[in-house]
Amino acid sequence: KQEVTQIPAALSVPEGENLVLNCSFTDSAIYNLQWFRQDPGKGLTSLLLIQSSQREQTSGRLNASLDKSSGRSTLYIAASQPGDSATYLCAVTSNAGKSTFGDGTTLTVKP
Amino acid sequence: NAGVTQTPKFQVLKTGQSMTLQCAQDMNHEYMSWYRQDPGMGLRLIHYSVGAGITDQGEVPNGYNVSRSTTEDFPLRLLSAAPSQTSVYFCASSYSEFMNTEAFFGQGTRLTVV
Fold it and tell me: Which residue has the higher pLDDT, B77 or B58?
């Protein structure tokens, strides 16, 4: 059974800092991995989708990497801003088509 | 605005009552799904559909029914509400199945069963 772990559960940083969020998964036979952002009381917004054949994806200040062999993905946020404060979730989709979500990392960026 | 619309946003039910959570999307997506989000358990898949007339069970289907009569709508029915169904429910859609493409989520329905 696939398990997805996100550590730390919560992170607080000062504005302007570069930071890395981690996502690890136990079964490396994945189809893709997707990072989401969730604001309080809101739904999930897709940030980056990495196919299993890819190593990384970039969108603006966000860069996500994937290392299937070690079962890890990281989300790098450059020059963090207070507006980046949210919960970030990763979701892994297996080759069988099942998606498993992590519990998320709650990020607070202090002005 | 285009996207996934869920109604209602909040609901309180008594144990044993039934209700339907509505979900509609206007992006012509074939794939739609329902998740529940509980603290410490991540999002868990309840039911999904790969197209009109086709539905299948996810990880936690017991106590829930779905139907997909049109591409746009994917309602979730709670047959006889139980306190264990207190949760936040999210509907999602995407162009193809299994989150192969960007997934769009609704804003959620916060359900409390007393």
Answer: B77
